[in-house]
Amino acid sequence: MEATGGLVSTPKALPYFVALSQILGLTVVAVTGAWLGLYRGGLAWESSLQFNVHPLCMVIGMVFLQGDALLVYRVFRNETKRTTKILHGLLHIFALIIALVGLVAVFDYHSKMNYADLYSLHSWCGLLIFILYFAQEEVQ
C-alpha cells in the first residue's frame, strides 16, 4: 500500500470483508443467545442457568470484541494513531472483562453445584487461551 498525501490507501475489497466479518460475528452472538434462550432456558446469575452466562460471554468477548479490536487498525487507517490505539485498547478491555465474567460464571456455577473444575480438555485449553490473552494484554 502506498501512502498518498499523508493518507494510507485502503484495499478496495476491505469494506466488504469487514462488513462480512461484522455480519458473521453478530450472527454468531445472536445464534448463541437464541440457543441459550430457546433451548437452554435463558440466562440468570443466581440459579442453575448461571452456567449459560459462560458461552455467551466467551463468544461476545473472546470472539466478537477481540476480533473487532484486531480490525481497528485496518478499518481506521486514516484516523490518528492515538484514536486507533484508544479504540483498540478499549475493545480489548471490554473483551477481557466480558470473558472474565464468563470465567467467573462457570467457576462459580461449578462451586455451587459441587462439580470438579478443570476436568476436561475444553476447560484446560480455554483457561490456557484466557491466560495467554491476558498476558498479551499486559505486555502491550
UniProtKB/TrEMBL annotation:
Its main location: membrane. It is a multi-pass membrane protein. Signal peptide: none annotated. It is found in: Cytoplasmic vesicle, Secretory vesicle, Chromaffin granule membrane. It comes from the Eukaryota. Keywords: Cytoplasmic vesicle, Electron transport, Heme, Iron, Membrane, Metal-binding, Translocase, Transmembrane, Transmembrane helix, Transport. PROSITE patterns: CYTOCHROME_B561. It catalyses: monodehydro-L-ascorbate radical(out) + L-ascorbate(in) = monodehydro-L-ascorbate radical(in) + L-ascorbate(out). This is Transmembrane ascorbate-dependent reductase CYB561. It comes from Sarcophilus harrisii (Tasmanian devil). The gene is CYB561.
